[in-house]
Amino acid sequence: MKLLAIAIIMGVGTIAPAIAIGWIGSRSAEAIGRNPEAASKVQTSMILALAFAEVIAILCLLTSVILKFTN
Questions:
Q1: Would you give the distance in Å from CA 53 to the centre of its chain?
Q2: What is residue 69's DSSP assignment?
Q3: Which end of the chain has the smaller Cβ count within 10 Å, N or C?
Q4: How many whole angstroms separate alpha carbon 63 and alpha carbon 67?
Q5: What percent of the chain stands above pLDDT 90?
Q6: CATH classification for the domain delimited by 2-68, as one of 1.20.20.10, 3.50.50.60, 3.20.20.30, 3.20.20.100
Q7: DSSP-based three-state secondary structure for 71
């Protein structure tokens, strides 16, 4: 049961941020294409959002490692 929980955490914890990162990247590229003058503002927001999405994956990894090595 513990291994199933770890597998679900890692599965959802990596798929959801991957989808979010792809969506953020495509939307920011579209925004920069529509308004090139705002590229620096869009890039700043995009990098911040990508960092938050990546943190979710890292937290899921840490949770699964903690579950794996505890009794």
A1: 3
A2: T
A3: C
A4: 6
A5: 93
A6: 1.20.20.10
A7: coil
